[in-house]
Amino acid sequence: MADMVSIFMSIGLNEQKAKETLKNEALSSTLKKAIEQARGLLGSASIDKTAGTMLYNMVTRLKDSTRLSFLTEYIITRKINSELQLSAALDFIKSHPQENLDRLQFDAACGVGVVVTPEQIEDAVELIIRKHKDQLLAERYRFNMGILMGEARTALKWADGKIVKNEVDMQVLHLLGPKTEADLEKKSSKKPKLNLNLELKPFLHKICLLFVGEANTEGKSLMEQLRGEALKFHKPGENYKTEGYVVTPNTMNLLKKHLEETGGQVRTRFPPEPNGILHIGHAKAINFNFGYAKANNGICFLRYDDTNPEKEEEKYFTAIKEMVEWLGYKPYAVTHASDQFQLLYDLAVDLIRRGHAYVCHQRGEELKGHNIPPSPWRERPVEESLLLFDRMRKGMFAEGEVTLRMKMVMEDGKMDPVAYRIKYTPHHRTGDTWCIYPTYDYTHCLCDSIENITHSLCTKEFQARRSSYFWLCNALDLYCPVQWEYGRLNLTYTVVSKRKIIKLVETGIVRDWDDPRLFTLTALRRRGFPPQAINNFCARVGVTVAQTTMEPHLLEACVREVLNDTAPRAMAILEPLKVTITNLPTSTEVRVPDFPANEAKGSHVVPFSKTIFIEQSDFREVMEKGYKRLTPDQPVGLRHAGYVISVQRVIKDGCGKVCELEVTCASSDSVEKPKAFIHWVSDPLRCEVRLYESLFLHKNPEDPAEVPAGFLSDINPNSLTVIGSALVDRSVGKAKVFDKFQFERVGYFSLDPDSTSEKLVFNRTVTLKEDPGKI
């Protein structure tokens, strides 16, 4: 059975799915045959997850097992590579039961080898938009765009749906322009009241878990999601109303004292370890902790959990605070766990005196796992543990020789977690004062108690520590905050583990923690992601209990929304082609709006002379169907210049490559409107442009089932393209580091810190929503 599970997992099924498949004997047998046939076709190569998923879907739906090898071959050779093609293939086989299939008929019915060009997509969408133009203009963005997509999918059966949608969105935007305030106004609609059976209400209440409307966060700002009763959190001082909260005889007195000290104010904290740079997952934690306090007129501490001197560096302390403030939050106070080292030590002594802790001589390897036997020193006399703990502090034991352990069993079954261990590493703040350091399990809840935190918000993996959190505060008879857990935020096509990022840096795959291909916050800032976009993304993800895994393109969509309104336009040429305008009477200047949709927001001036540069892709020597830009027989307009140019002469170098065009120009008012307008530069600045793609080839580079050889084997060789001789108009000449621009028809870009007065360096933040090659 284990062998079969491994075989099924090798094509991308998770363990649970593989085991479920084994319960169906016929399905398991057929799937195994398909995998064996696929391996026979591939030889030494492995079956990737995409093909594996297709194989599984095919086997579960195939009624005629005699066609198994036939369809397996088509999937493995990539002739069938989409769900749409697979459905067509199964339908064809079902309707053609004869023994010998006509492959030509089959290929035609399944779209095998069909290539839909961008020009074909553009033309088809253009016809559909024209058909609905009047209604679109009347209803604008209230028009049901699904109608356009439905007709486009019918007309372009085998086209990539994502590309089709991008084209529809682009042409709608071109027709209607950006959304206005009127477009953004929501329709007033009264939702019918749900008539829930009373017996269902308790059940529904339970499945909502901690959060109200967990799936109903769309359109709500983060503050709306966090304010007041939006979350089922306790009110300050009412900790005892929380399910699972442990009430002792002294609880109410401690809560009363807590309220006197805080005045009933909400208090949260963001407690990172200063041993690495914050990443996109931390952005959710920052927004949740600082946001919850802000939404409820409370305060939030930035507390460094600096209890492991071996891994902490000053640069991480600085970068963490910088990123919190970059996201727009100001800590009420910056504190450190090390601020409380003496108090934490005194409390540990008290814990021993109360009989809740003991000094243990078991080694670290003996404490690993969940089913370890009780320590032989668990019941040693209190006075003996006090003496040994004092000797630990005085440096009379070697590292790993002894620990202080707490007498408790955690929710995950782990027994007697360590409270203190010995480390002879100087601390960045306390130097050599201490050689024993508290652990997270001991420190976290006590620092929360000391700072009078009302809501200790942490990610779901800390749920197993909730019982120890309550136990320790109560064992020491201290005020006990409430720990609330929420789901982590993860992204595909990346890694955020500190250890793995360090490996990427050490192997030279990325330059440093702020390499724009990473998803650390410093990397996102360097790439040009606005903090507002990251916060908007966190708001869209919502405050959920479940772990959330998102695609990077969803974050990029938030980036585009912000940059569309905030990044001034400029013109840049990545692959220049020289153009000489032979009949331009004189050089002049052209005024270009910073925001074409709202010219009141300003403009800039660029020179316009006889010599300009255009993108090489904006000229084709041989006319092709659907191509709308410059050819020897087709003129093109120059954006903002008011001219239309026509080719008179094509000049080539010794290798036969086009190196220059000679053209004539005519005022756009005096000639027929051209099919397209292109961007250009004149008397430009030379610059370097860095184009970024996903760092990894697979969605889950850390998943052994998806990437058996490990994440370092999954690096995308095309994740960085450097263009050293790009041209940009002079309006960006005085830009500062991290200033952002939209290079028209190219994408959004940000000025990199590597820039000098001699050469500007731009990072591509994101592409435009539409494919620039089709405009």
Automatic annotation (TrEMBL):
Positions of the Glutamyl/glutaminyl-tRNA synthetase class Ib anti-codon binding domain: 567-665
Domain Glutaminyl-tRNA synthetase class Ib non-specific RNA-binding, chain residue ranges per copy: 3-161, 164-256
CDD domains in the record: GlnRS_core
InterPro entries named in the record: aa-tRNA-synth_I_CS (IPR001412), Gln-tRNA-synth (IPR004514), Gln-tRNA-synth_Ib_RNA-bd_2 (IPR007638), Gln-tRNA-synth_Ib_RNA-bd_N (IPR007639), Gln-tRNA-synth_Ib_RNA-bd_N_1 (IPR042558), Gln-tRNA-synth_Ib_RNA-bd_N_2 (IPR042559), Gln/Glu-tRNA_Ligase (IPR050132), Glu/Gln-tRNA-synth (IPR000924)
Chief location bin: cytoplasm
GO MF term (any one): ATP binding
Localization terms from the record: Cytoplasm, Cytosol
Domain Glutamyl/glutaminyl-tRNA synthetase class Ib catalytic: 265-564
Catalysed transformations (reactions): tRNA(Gln) + L-glutamine + ATP = L-glutaminyl-tRNA(Gln) + AMP + diphosphate
Protein name, UniProt field: Glutamine--tRNA ligase
